[in-house]
Amino acid sequence: MAKIAVESRELFNSKIKPYKDLVQKSFDKEKSILDLIVKDTSGIAYKKLLLTEEMMYVTTLQLIINNLSVEILGTKNTDALNEGRKALYKAIIYLEEIVTNQIDVPFSEYEAKVAEISNTPLEKRYFIVRKLGLAIRLILDAYGDNTKWKWSFVELQGRFTTVAKNLVDLKSAIKDYFDPRAPDYDNTVYYIRLIKKLLSESADGYRERYELSTRRIDDMRLAINYLLALRRITMLLNEKDEAEEIKKKALVWKDKMDSDQKKGVSK
Q: Distance between CA atoms of 63 and 55, rounded to whole angstroms?
């Protein structure tokens, strides 16, 4: 058995070497881009989009390493998964640096930031968001339901939701959403639907984390903020009935939060 274990470990190490080399190349590329940003401040937002994609690629490589561990050694590789999770955070941070991490604010407050990537087509932004969302889902699935990171993933998902929303030029998107002849019509409709779904899920995620884990008032406030951000989108889409239902839900949640505070059951 010991010999089999040694042989399996040697096979695993040989199989993952090419992927570890690719991970290192990605980090070397990241460093080069960051060094370039220091020397040349033009087009910083576009360079950070490249950094985002590079970090997503690192996560993909770490997922492959974990899959090989499961296949050859019969156990998940937590080191690879942790590195993949860290790369996802870096990807999201780069996006936050481009379009801010503001949740429930008028588009005008971050419009200038979005304008810095005006040459990046909506289709490309939608692709980045879907790819990042998939990477998060794959990491979550690889960790499994009993991971100690379960509740921290609520934050990861929430921050992803925020940048997914903020990457969109809402002025153009709302216009295209109602114009089937617009070149970006299909991508806009699908993207807006995704944003609404993500906002709803993040609101529920923070509410659940508040109720079942932290009892931190900040979590409940974030849950409400994601609801209000969703309401803001529905109002822009003139979905009055849905906007009213979301408003009522947010008020119920706020009453719950205020009541808990008075009872001293929240931190």
A: 12
pLDDT tops 70 at residue 1: no
CB 85 within 8 A of CB 160: no
Tokens, residue 215: 């009892």
pLDDT exceeds 50 at position 26: yes
pLDDT at 263: 85
Question: Average pLDDT, whole number, for the chain?
Answer: 96
Q: Dump pLDDT digits (tens) for 205-239.
A: 999 999 999 999 999 999 999 999 999 999 999 99
Distance CA 138, CA 13 (A): 22
Q: Could you give the angle at which helices 217-236 and 240-263 cross, rounded to 10 degrees?
A: 170
Angle CA(73)–CA(78)–CA(79) in degrees, nearest 5? 105
- Scan for tokens 């969703």, then name that residue: 230
Q: How many CA atoms lie within 13 A of 226 on its CB side?
A: 28
The CA distance from 130 to 97, in Å, is 19
Per-residue pLDDT, averaged over 117-137, amounts to: 98
CA separation for the pair 223, 211 (Å, rounded) = 11
